[in-house]
Amino acid sequence: MSSFLSCFSPRRRHEQRALKQKEDAARFLDRLPSWNTLDNSLIFQAFEWHVPSDKRHWYRLKCLLPEWQAMGIDHIWIPPGCKGMDPNGNGYDIYDLFDLGEFDQKGAISTKWGGFIELQEMIRDAKSLGVNIIWDAVLNHKAGADYSESFQAIAVDPKERNKDISSPQEIHGWTGFDFSGRGDKYSNMKYHWQHFTGVDWDQKLETNDIYKILGPEKDWASDVSTENGNYDYLMFADLEHSNPEVCADLLHWGSWITNLLSISGMRLDAAKHFSTRFQKKFIQHVRDNSNPKFFVIGEYWAPNVSDIQDYLENLDYQAMAYDVPLLKKFSTISETPYADLRTIFNDTLVQSKPGHAVTFVANHDTQPGQMLETPVASSFKLAAYALILLRKDGFPCIFYGDMYGLNVEGSRAPACDGKLPLLAQARKQYAYGEQENYFDEPNCVGFVRYGNANHSGLACLISNGGRSRKCMFIGRQYTNTQWIDILGYHDKRVVIDKRGYGNFPINASCVGVWVEATAVRRDHLEMNLTSNIYEL
What we know:
It is a single chain. With about 525 residues, this protein is of the alpha/beta class. It has helices spanning about 1-10, 15-25, 55-70, 115-130, 245-260, 275-290, 305-315, 325-335, 350, 380-390, 400-405, 420-430, 520-525, and strands at about 45, 75-80, 85, 95, 130-135, 140, 145-155, 160-165, 170-175, 195-200, 210-215, 235-240, 265-270, 295-300, 320, 355-360, 395-400, 435-440, 445-450, 460-465, 470-475, 480-485, 495, 500-505, 510-515. The termini are far apart. InterPro entries: A-amylase_thermo, GH, GH13_cat_dom, Glyco_hydro_b. Belongs to the glycosyl hydrolase 13 family. Its cofactor is Ca(2+).
């Protein structure tokens, strides 16, 4: 009875009309498409920047696959597995796309992550568990050339790439790639200066500038980010995707690796730095020749949602993109006392294009010390993950460094007080059906997932202020049922009243995830996550 009084006391009668609208919206849920949706999908980024260079990462992932699958992860984003310039590097210094740890090149056979056989074994086990592979594709540039070549080039202003700051001159750039360790296996393409648009080093004068390579019809790509005037050039030897030989080789690689490894999709690294026309052609080619359901996530790093929307539109929405604006919101709100939580989804991709948004809280580029470092305060990180894992919209991604900690000096413990696996389980078991938002207070927001034919639903509250309560409609079918906070931050049970409402409490600066007590199976929720992953 106390729950009923707290929700419908006279001082709150002015809100009853709004509550009645929420009740009406929850009628006939079984007639909606969400009533029979499939199980939720979840991406796991299976690396962080400082994973040890022990050549055992593919084996490590193979060992961890069962626990990921058990917590509802059905996609893993794996690091670039192609041979890089540095055998201990992470693969973004890409040397040979066709060497997956198979050939003796750049001082090693294996990549940092392991050998070709270990990679195949890991992917085979993933497929047997129903876990899809997202390959991190580095198609913007090449690094670690086998020899330098001489050619005409012109230095440009780093902050305005369309502005020349020198006369045409002969430079010696590292643009010769013969892949002698691999030979012609898989591809007979050899790369020379004609296949690139720019470099950042003149071996002749030993000078470091951004040089645009000159030649007939050569220029920066026009369909790239307009930052710095034109952001085609990023690093190393920048590929010219309009060159027919380059285009053909990359298209061949896309279908080759997709068929060879049975991968389900790719992340396109540095997507704002190379031709969107080529990206569109690449996606269509792989779908036509390898996997009709092949999907792509473009790493188009932009703080303004309009730039990402333009990118997706230029691809005819054939790809998804990371919701960078949402991450920026998480960071700003987490570091601003009593920030208004009601605005957290304003001007984000998940708000404007929910079907094309990959939501995340951290990744290898945003972790401490990296170029795109974007800190989300530890006190808010669980709330941020709840907002991407438990809500209806977006395709969420959990970061390896948050699940297992960062392999840095002094070590960094797992984020969220170790509750990320529990939150992932909540997504797997309860976060289904239609959604009703209660974003009516600046420092306490909530939402309800009503559940569907196979899942009972949940209620979530988030506070970045003091202790509070929120009355939320769960459904008359739950009258007199008891709901518990599976995160364990709130001991008392909430009893749903005769009108289907629960009066849910929330502690200061806290997260609560409430589910019907009879739907909770602790043996399914609580997991013994592998702690010493680098001893595997």
